[in-house]
Amino acid sequence: MTGRVVVAGLGPGAEALVTPEVRAALAAATDVIGYIPYVARVADRPGLVKHASDNRVELDRARHALELAGQGRRVVVVSSGDPGVFAMASALFEAVEAGPPAWCDLRIEVLPGITAMLAAAARAGAPLGHDFCAINLSDNLKPWALIEKRLRLAVEADFAMALYNPRSKARPEGFVRALDLLREACNDARPVIFARAVSTPEESLRVVPLPECRPEMADMRTVVLVGSSRTRVIARTGAPYVFTPRSA
Amino acid sequence: MTGRVVVAGLGPGAEALVTPEVRAALAAATDVIGYIPYVARVADRPGLVKHASDNRVELDRARHALELAGQGRRVVVVSSGDPGVFAMASALFEAVEAGPPAWCDLRIEVLPGITAMLAAAARAGAPLGHDFCAINLSDNLKPWALIEKRLRLAVEADFAMALYNPRSKARPEGFVRALDLLREACNDARPVIFARAVSTPEESLRVVPLPECRPEMADMRTVVLVGSSRTRVIARTGAPYVFTPRSA
User: Most buried residue among A157, A201, B72, B134 by CB atoms closer than 10 A?
Assistant: First the structure.
């Protein structure tokens, strides 16, 4: 048996958004590794060992996966959304780079998934239908000044924006500052979408003009989509459609 | 029977990357509408009418879908990748906005898919593992000067970048200018990934340092991923891993 590591994206929550490719990798795994709630999404079966770990131990988890693969196990590291977007894939390659040379020769595969911003955008209409950017608002691994710089440049470029990890209990003030910056830099009433836990039973979606956005509209299960200056709202009975036209 | 329009993402090509949600929508459709090669991906069956159209008629196609839904048909508009990323979803809402008021009350749903940049990133490692942007290099619907402005600001923000529609026969010179601009603005040897037709039998992947990139490495089936200044390459037997670390 040759060991391998597959980093698989489980999508935003609904089983109907898990690709057949990921489903097949899970069916072939001997070990599943990941953050507790993601591992919980994988059904138990004989022959499958589940290793659930807490948040913020991404590098430990990556090393554990590589060690098991080195022993010949077929390991699937599960991420929510897409593993390459603010998730486990980068951590895995950081561990490979810093680890023993033999890890470079392991078979490593990344399987894409539906990332939060695309699930949220689909629910709202097509707010990311023109050029856009994705920014992680967590300052755990980068200085806050860099986040502010990127937000300002994104406004100047007139990108629509997807803001991941907008707000946690440990750092509630960052999103306050981000909203203040965006209000000042945009100086208009472009729509902002607060999309929480899309495709799960806890899903909620809220479209709010930028001047009326309040920090408590987001938590760590929310992805925030900020329109560009061109983004439009179609009011209707029920939730409005939000879209960014293809032309600019 | 109540008509509806579903805009569905077929992913980059492989059937294993089509979500069960999209599969179910296709199974329930009376009509499938889209660009010829995407409609060809949907199997024929009794009761299903397929409407294939040429490229660059997105608005006509959107209106056709809305008209059929108004007559009570269950229409699926198929896009490759994700319909909200440089694909049919925006065109559909442009048509809704400009069309008869009754179109606002049709049931319209967008179903996300695996977009080209995420499929390509997964194949290469995790090049979009930190903040990034997505820019459509086609100047059919926006001035070239805006594309250049966005490329410059993206470099200044140190985003990794996904460049869609880099080069067509009708406008070969744009990508030449984009590469010149990137070489000058980045002034380093960051890795660039040319990912063509990922997940199809024609797939190819090439990792090239920015100074060595040549325009003919891309065509319209290629998505080009440009690393940030932090993006790293792990050389190994076989294709290298490319990843952008989580910290900056």
Answer: B134
CB contacts of A144 in chain B (<8 Å) are none
A27-50 per-position pLDDT tens digit = 999 999 999 999 999 999 999 999
Angle between helices A144-156 and A173-186 (to 10 degrees): 20
Tell me the nearest-neighbour CA distance from A130 into chain B, angstroms: 6
Among B41, B88, B83, B48, smallest CA distance to B68 is for B48
Hey, are the CB atoms on A133 and B83 less than 8 Å from each other?
no
Q: Please tell me the distance from the alpha carbon of residue B135 to that of residue A130, in angstroms, as a whole number.
A: 8
Residues 6+ apart with CB under 8 A from A2: A72, A107
Which residues 6+ apart lie within 8 Å of B101 measured at CB?
A: none
The CA-to-CA distance between both ends of chain A, in Å, stands at 54
Closest by alpha carbon to A243, among A117, A121, A120, A116?
A121
Question: Mind listing the pLDDT tens digit for each residue in B205-234?
Answer: 999 999 999 999 999 999 999 999 999 999
Exposure class string for A213-234: b at 16+ Cβ within 10 A, else e: bebebbbebbbbbbbbebbbbb
Residues of A in contact with B114 (CB under 8 A): 19, 112-114
The CA–CA distances, whole Å, from A16 to A13, A160, B10, B25 equal 9, 27, 14, 11
Contacts of A73 (CB under 8 A, 6+ apart): A3, A30, A31
Give the mean model confidence (pLDDT) for residues B135-150: 95
What CA–CA distances, in Å, run from A64 to A51, A68, A104? Answer: 9, 6, 15
* Structure token digits, residue A130: 């023109």
Nearest chain B residue to A99 by CA: give it.
B234
- Residue in chain A nearest B145 by alpha carbon: A248
- Would the CB atoms of A157 and B149 count as touching at under 8 Å? yes
Q: Where do the DSSP E strands lie in chain B?
A: 4-9, 31-35, 49-53, 74-79, 107-111, 125-126, 132-136, 160-164, 191-196, 204-209, 222-226, 232-234, 241-243
Query: Which candidate from B14, B115, B132 shows the least CB-CB separation from A118?
Result: B115
